[in-house]
Amino acid sequence: MKLLSILGSIFLFIIISPYSGFVIASMIVLIILLSPEYKWYSSLGISAAITMVLFLGFKTVLNIPLPVNMWGW
Fold first, then answer.
1. Contact (CB, 8 A) for 12 and 28
2. Does the predicted TM-score (pTM) go above 0.90?
3. Which of 18, 41, 47, 58 is the most core-located residue (most Cβ within 10 A)?
């Protein structure tokens, strides 16, 4: 069951990231992956923190462009 959740999350990320951007897509995927192990508010906080660290790291430190939405995140 975990394997299907992981594969489904990867597929969902590939489909929605061009439209919603990296931040929203990765938060949704991480919430899906973390929700069986943590409470909803913990998985939301963890996913938001991880997503922001990754987004800022790739964008500012590594200077690698990521998919963004109409607001630039």
1. yes
2. no
3. 47
